[in-house]
Design brief:
elongated, single chain, about 55% helix, mainly alpha
Length: about 350
Amino acid sequence: MRTERNLTRRLDRVFARLDREPERPAHIDVPRMSRHRVVLFSATLAFYLAIVWAVVTTSWLVRLDWQVMFFRPYQQWPEIHAFLDYYVVLGQRGPTAVMVAAWLGWRSWRQHTLRPLLTLAASLLLLNITVGAAKIGMGRLGPHYATVIGSNEMGLGGDIFPSGHTANAVVTWGILAYLASSPRARRWLSALSAVTSLGVGLTTVYLGTHWLSDVLLGWAAGLLILLALPWFEPLITKAELWLFDLRDRWRARRGLPAPEPAVPVRPVLLKTRGAPAGQPVPAREPVSPTRASRGLAHLAPGPHTTRSERTPVTPAGSRRPPHADRLPHTDRPRSTSQSARPLTGG
């Protein structure tokens, strides 16, 4: 009973934090399947099929695979072997998924949306389905299990083609660039993920666990998943709405208070000095009442009112008349003010 109560309290705290902003920020950029992205997707798919065809037909690429394997890079440069044994972990699915999920979970909490985590889950699901099916379908053996020199080692029950480490590095680190909130961050993260996945792929060749063609196909497989993600954005949005609806029903079943509804953003007509008459300037109201009150957190606790709502107080000993007797400057005629001045005999 105590364990169940503790779990319930923790879930309540998480939901309470997510309910601080019932509406997710409107500035979140969701990539779309543009014409440029379609062209890149088509070119990458053509490269993917070309690599498969070159290996199936035992072309020059297979001969290059055997030459690199007989070169044995791990014997040529043994001094970097220890470092690369750790570096290749950046391509393993378990550790990388935990690290990236932790970062995206923090972003989900800050942005009050489940899209980062759902996008990561969708990309990993696509990775497992596509790369796993290709591995099992082509059944290629790795360099350590090769049987006939010069053969492509296809259809022998292996699971090495394409490289799972390389594809996972492209997808896992590339998803950070895909979810970046600014173009500059997207460019830097794209370059960083490209260098990381390139290093992971070459590390597997150095260690002798993959053919060079495995790495090329793994890069293409991971890039195809990242380029195809905008097609799955509607499903990700539906999944997010379904999960929030499930949360609301769970709260209603337990008798917990429902989150405050989001205040819709609607235009407000304001007039400015520079605008011509009859042409109001649209403005935006705050999204939610909680968001507007965050700027007053540095003030003393208690209810705060705006300047227009405060009642002016005439300080003690002042010669000015009280507030009720004052008139605006524009409504006070000059002749009246001058005649009201007391006359003193001299």
